[in-house]
Amino acid sequence: MPKTEYRLFHQRIAETIRDEVSRLRDSLLFGSKNKVHKFGKVDITCDIATLEILLSDYILDYENSEESERQLTTRQEWHDFLTKTEYLSYNECLLILLGVSPTLADLLEPKLYKINLINEGDLHGEPLSLIFFQRMENHLLRNKFNSKKISTQEFIDWALENRLLRQNVDEV
């Protein structure tokens, strides 16, 4: 029986997310009050802890030859959401497209699928959600689905068609 494996179409997407989250963490840790204010009023201690968790191998990394146990778990979780669930939340879909473990979907604004450029200001004070909102993948996903609950197979088909995911089929 063939085994299907999914991957990000471009690994660079996950690398970019890692860089953006790292810059946000650094600006919260070392930035002046003006730099921190750019992201709105945030609970710095809480946000830094959240960002540290996210940066501790919850973002896909196929480039590193010495993968940690957490990285292997992240890869498995990411893939299991695509292969073992019937429906995904909007935030889970977005995190999958960005190469982040969908188990962290609760870290994002729950109504992210409803937010558009007109009401983007609602995300100020939530810098992590703002980073994910501003990604092109978010806008593509919202334009296609704009729903809290999405059929996994429909999502996969759309992501493959739009070259956001790629599929490998291995004969077992």
Helix share of residues?
40-55%
In one word, what is the shape?
Answer: globular
Compute the number of strand runs: 4
Count of helical stretches: 8
The structure class reads: mainly alpha
Strand order of the largest sheet: 1-4
H/E element sequence = EHHHHEHHHEHE
What's the gyration radius in Å? Answer: 16 Å
* SS strand fraction: 5-15%
Main sheet specs: 2 strands, antiparallel
In short:
This protein is mainly α and 172 residues long. It contains 8 helices and 4 strands.
Description:
The protein has 172 residues and is mainly alpha-helical. The protein has one domain (2-171). Helices cover 49% and strands 12% of the residues. It contains 8 helices and 4 strands. Helix 1 (12-30) runs antiparallel to helix 6 (127-133) and helix 5 (90-97) packs across helix 7. The protein is globular, with a radius of gyration of 16 Å.
State the main characteristics.
4 strands, single chain, two-stranded antiparallel sheet, 12% strand, mainly alpha, globular, 172 residues
Helix and strand arrangement:
Blueprint: E1 2-8, H1 12-30, H2 33-37, H3 44-55, H4 69-83, E2 87-89, H5 90-97, H6 127-133, H7 136-144, E3 149-151, H8 152-161, E4 165-171
Helix pairs in contact: 1-3, 1-6, 5-7
